[in-house]
Design a protein that fits this description.
The chain is mainly alpha-helical. 44% of the residues lie in helices and 7% in strands. It has two domains: 2-25 and 79-133, no CATH class; 32-74, no CATH class. It is built from five helices and three strands; from the N terminus they run H-E-H-H-H-H-E-E. Helix 1 packs parallel to helix 5. The model has no long low-confidence stretch (mean pLDDT 85).
């Protein structure tokens, strides 16, 4: 996470190489897996079986865990690293608002699950992910 923080922040600390960030959500996974709105868990069971027929490595993943993850938790909401990334981008936007060179119009745009995030939604931090385990020396 420390390396990704440095990549995102860039040399100047205000993410000069980025214009926006995209956080994946449940609908992104739904589209990627071609799931319809009905019997999502049944569709995921069938998807697991289809993949297991051609990819022996997937059999190392419990079918129930596969189904439950993609039906219930497939988004950045359940990713510790994504929580840290959210907080990094939030900090960068605070910095961009404070500095005359950027201002509010130059904040990083943020999208989640196919939709833009409004500025008010992006003012709140997420619970820390791995940051408590990182120490810069």
């Amino acid at each position: 996470m420390l390396m990704w923080t440095r990549v995102l922040e860039g040399v100047t600390g205000d993410a000069p190489d980025f214009d926006f960030v995209y956080f994946t959500g449940p609908n992104d996974f739904k589209l990627a897996l071609n799931l319809s709105d009905t019997d999502v868990m049944g569709q995921l069971d069938a998807e697991y079986d289809k993949r297991a027929a051609t990819d022996p490595g997937i059999k190392a993943v419990d079918k129930r865990l596969f189904r439950n993850y993609y039906a219930l938790r497939a988004s950045v909401a359940f990713s510790l690293g994504s929580h840290d990334e959210w907080n990094i981008v939030r900090t960068i936007n605070e910095r961009r608002r404070r500095e005359d060179a950027h201002g509010i119009a130059r904040q990083l745009a943020a999208w989640f699950d196919g939709q833009p995030i409004t500025p008010s939604q992006f003012e709140s931090g997420a619970a820390p992910g791995y940051t408590g385990n990182c120490a810069v020396k």
